[in-house]
Amino acid sequence: MRTWWDILSLYETLLVWPLAAFVGFALLRAKSRRGQVVLGVVLCAVFLPYIHRYAGDLYFDHLCKTQAGEFIYRTMDNVEGILQMRPRDGSKDYFDRMRDGDIPEDPWGHTNREARTPWHMIQTYTFIEISAAVLPSPILRRLYDESMFEEPSAGQAFARYTSSDLGSLRSIRKEFSLKPRSLYGFTWREISRPRHRFFNIHAGEIQAVVLASDEVLGRKTGFYRSRPMDICPRGKDDQQTEMFLKKVLRPSPRELGVPLR
User: Fold this and answer.
1) Distance between CA 163 and CA 180 in Å, rounded?
2) CB 148 within 8 A of CB 51
3) Within a 13 Å sphere around the CA of 38, how many CA atoms are in the beta-carbon half?
4) Which helix (H) or strand (E) holds 82?
5) What is the pTM of this model?
């Protein structure tokens, strides 16, 4: 994929204008109507990558203005913990993948923090639960206490990360259970449309939901464009999922570090 974009970039920067000048000169010299039509079509084809790019600019701007942003329908207070309903692929570093042209599903919403170290969210909530099948990679095992990485027993489907020292990862511990303790969860999806793919646009959405009823409490929608590279809403960072969830699934005052009165 990256090789294809390199070839296209070379064409746009070095070849398109000499080729357009040659075809344009031939068009001016053409004497027959048929020759003029054929050369006119060829001239349009020469500029097709530019036409595609600028049409994509207009469509991307339209999506950002009309569909991107946060949409909160209902908030919940005093939330102790949350369930990561759909873990992301954290087998590779996000930035390495993007540099290699290996674009993950939902590149707008994908972050290393959520994909590779989701237990960091206990700095916001008392606990976070994920699928027990999703275990950290050997590289990450060297970064944290080995007590976090025991294997689940048969039938234990969920891993729960907790910390007795709020805001610190030094006291983190991991346990397994048959069912989640969380009342609320979050998930994500890539909204794939043929018109999005045609303009190299990836649409993504993060949702906060009530586990018992699947009610969507809020969602955050964004767009990533690979050519040229652009993203909206702007200001993406490693904590964007967590910051959005805090607005919908509000941690209790004790979890926020404020003493209860």
Assistant:
1) 17
2) no
3) 8
4) strand 81-84
5) 0.77
> pLDDT (tens digit, 0 to 9) for every residue of the chain, 261 residues total?
456 556 666 666 667 777 767 767 777 777 788 877 777 777 777 767 777 788 889 999 999 999 999 999 999 999 999 999 998 988 888 999 888 888 899 999 999 989 888 888 878 888 889 887 665 555 555 555 555 666 677 777 888 888 766 555 666 778 888 888 999 999 999 998 888 988 889 999 999 999 999 999 999 999 999 878 899 998 888 999 999 999 999 997 754 444 333
> Position of tokens 């969507």?
216
Residue 182: left if φ>0, alpha if ψ -120 to 50, beta else—which one?
beta
Size of the chain, expressed as the number of residues it contains = 261
String of DSSP letters for 8-35: HHHIIIIIHHHHHHHHHHHHHH--SHHH
According to DSSP, the β-strands at 184-191 and 172-177 are unpaired
| Contact by Cβ (8 Å): 107, 224 | yes
Each as own residue / partner, the long-range contacts of residues 65-69 (CB below 8 Å, 24 or more positions apart, any chain) are 67/203, 67/221, 67/223, 68/221, 68/222, 68/223, 68/232, 68/233, 69/220, 69/221, 69/233
